[in-house]
């Protein structure tokens, strides 16, 4: 009976968060834009691999999408403190819609090439680089301090769902209707999300005019804060390792599916959705349980589980395992991915003062921005030793890196 009452209470709290003024438009816009980003990523990868038959070229296109995270992530954290966050998100969605429309028209005219996909991917990456310091900050603010963690957990769960839906849609639409339709759908969806944000009524307290000297000063201050915080330094280290060697595995799924398993575009979409599906399930559990203690421990454990799944997936694929087994392994990896992602945000919200959060989120975004370097590394490894060997090597490297960090943290007592 008590368990039932606790479950009902958690459900009511989640409902109350979603009823907060402004939450639903922000949540919906984020869900739509992120779904379309993953749809475009798979469609671009399939088009590029068909045109070039090169895992390196697929990696380059994917790297262009994540490069802005590395180049502008920290700056966007500072900008989000001073500039109206609603305008940042709105302009980004309109820019994404225009970029996707351009790709769709070029494809329809038969003039699309991989360099144009690289340019469009870079624009999409610029838009995505604003998501954490701007829209997610707004998500937490609409819910209020007491419910901020739950609001972020709901938003994180939604991101996992979009990572399932986007590749599935991308594989299905690309296989049935081609790349032009994929990008036309993305453009229309981004435009609808922009309309939701445009109608949003928000009030942001001004923190002064934005200037180059202020950007430099705020970044230096954020760097000093991170340097003096063992928890934040550990968070940034895990983030760098996980994005260098972990999430870059995704770029290997297209050549793996085509060369090793001879899969259709739709089945490659299913393969790309396995890990985020596991994340969605685990995110629901973590969000309802409200795990407030040992966030760093959960972060490290989740990342190591993800790397273990990647290594096992590479080993199993080298022996031509059934696709169902590969899906199961990646699904289990998604359980660890959820623990890593949710506690990555939770650590910042719970341990960083409000005035510093956007800037620290910006530093985290820079860590996430190591993804393009990891993507290029994964592509080069696939060209040298094949996608299965690349998966094994990336997984084992991540286990070693984060395992050593976890051992040091345990010895120093950081995980208590």
Automatic annotation (TrEMBL):
InterPro entries: MFS_dom, MFS_trans_sf, TM_effector. PANTHER family: INTEGRAL MEMBRANE EFFLUX PROTEIN-RELATED, STAPHYLOFERRIN A TRANSPORTER. The chain crosses the membrane at residues 26-49, 55-76, 88-108, 183-200, 232-249, 261-286, 298-317, 323-340, 360-385, 391-410. Residues 187-416 form the Major facilitator superfamily (MFS) profile domain. It is found in: Cell membrane. Keywords: Cell membrane, Membrane, Transmembrane, Transmembrane helix, Transport. This is MFS transporter. It is a multi-pass membrane protein. It comes from Caballeronia jiangsuensis.
């Amino acid at each position: 009976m008590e368990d039932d009452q606790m479950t009902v209470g958690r459900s009511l709290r989640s409902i109350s968060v979603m009823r907060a003024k402004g939450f639903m438009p922000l949540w919906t816009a984020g869900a739509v834009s992120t779904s379309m980003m993953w749809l475009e990523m798979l469609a671009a990868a399939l088009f590029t691999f068909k045109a070039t038959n090169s895992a390196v070229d697929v990696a380059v296109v994917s790297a262009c999408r994540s490069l802005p995270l590395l180049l502008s992530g920290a700056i966007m954290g500072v900008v989000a403190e001073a500039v109206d966050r609603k305008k940042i998100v709105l302009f980004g969605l309109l820019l994404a819609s225009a970029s996707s429309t351009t790709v769709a028209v070029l494809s329809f005219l038969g003039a699309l090439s991989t360099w144009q996909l690289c340019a469009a991917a870079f624009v999409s990456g610029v838009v995505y680089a604003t998501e954490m310091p701007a829209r997610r900050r707004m998500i937490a603010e609409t819910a209020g301090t007491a419910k901020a963690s739950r609001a972020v957990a709901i938003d994180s769960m939604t991101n996992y769902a979009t990572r399932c839906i986007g590749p599935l849609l991308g594989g299905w639409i690309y296989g049935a209707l081609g790349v032009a339709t994929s990008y036309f759908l993305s453009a229309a969806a981004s435009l609808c999300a922009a309309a939701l944000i445009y109608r949003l009524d928000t009030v942001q307290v001004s923190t002064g005019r934005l200037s180059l000297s202020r950007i430099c000063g705020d970044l230096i201050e954020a760097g000093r804060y991170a340097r003096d915080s063992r928890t934040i330094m550990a968070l940034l280290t895990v983030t760098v390792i996980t994005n260098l060697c972990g999430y870059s595995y995704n770029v290997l799924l297209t050549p793996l599916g085509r060369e090793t398993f001879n899969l259709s575009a739709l089945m490659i979409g299913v393969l790309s959705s396995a890990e985020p599906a596991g994340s969605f399930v685990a995110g629901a559990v973590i969000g309802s349980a409200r795990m407030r203690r040992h966030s760093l421990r959960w972060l490290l454990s989740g990342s190591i589980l993800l790397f273990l799944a990647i290594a096992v997936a590479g080993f199993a694929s080298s022996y031509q395992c059934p696709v169902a087994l590969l899906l199961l392994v990646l699904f289990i990896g998604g359980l660890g991915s959820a623990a890593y992602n949710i506690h990555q945000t939770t650590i910042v919200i719970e341990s960083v003062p409000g005035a510093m959060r956007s800037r620290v989120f910006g530093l985290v975004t820079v860590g996430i921005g190591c993804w393009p370097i990891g993507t290029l590394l994964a592509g080069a490894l696939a060209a040298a030793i094949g996608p299965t060997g690349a998966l094994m090597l990336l997984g084992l490297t991540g286990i070693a890196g984060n395992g050593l960090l976890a051992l040091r943290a345990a010895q120093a007592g950081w995980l208590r």
